[in-house]
Amino acid sequence: MDEQVLTGGNSNAVVRVGETVRRPAGPWTPAVHSLLRALRAAGVHEVPEPLGFDEKGREVLFFLPGEVGNYPLPDWLWAPAILEGAGRLLRRVHDASAPLIDQDLVWRLPSHEPIEVICHNDVAPYNMTFISGRVAGLFDFDMASPGPRIWDLAYLAYRLAPLGEDAGIDTSDDERLARMDRLIDAYGMPFPRAEVLRTVAARLLDLATYTDGRIQETKNPDFAAHAAMYRRDAVRADVLALRA
User: Fold this and answer.
1) Looking at 66-80, 147-161, 206-220, which range is the least confident one?
2) Cystine design at 107: which of 91, 124, 145, 152 (Cβ 3.0–4.6 Å)?
């Protein structure tokens, strides 16, 4: 069957073949497939179903229908229903992943303490699908690893409050903080606003360091701009935490 390159991420090696997605596999892929199977067995059907590997050694996943939240971000992405749906879905993913934290699995990224769940580590609109203005799916679990719930929730707040300079939405800090509160409420655990913001800053500095490494690996100058933005946004999150 014909292969259709899927765009929007940092790789052109992800393709759609019929109703499946084919992606390069790595030593972490069996752990990711175990996670996806556990999530779906627990009723979280908004994640891809793993189907094994093809003749080229690529992992095979069922294709998730819907529109992906790629850049430039659409105006409908800022609707309250998106915030609430994303927060509820992340909570369900985390709850269903908890039984895997004690298993001897190889993950792509290091763990972060305290280990409570398996974090997706890149929960953002560009890794989500949407249908009729609602969150319909979450994909790209390649960077998953054990960590605290707030690690994922903070990054989702960074992308959906939004707290990043690349969001393309003109709104006040008070409005961003109110949106973050709504997301936390949807997740359903009483994380203090200041703690989430401090975790946003820590998460972005960690991401900037990781992105520095990607510059060396890929020689892609775009990654340098991304790393610099993450560091600027981390400073801003720390400032907001002082007034939270």
Assistant:
1) 206-220
2) 145
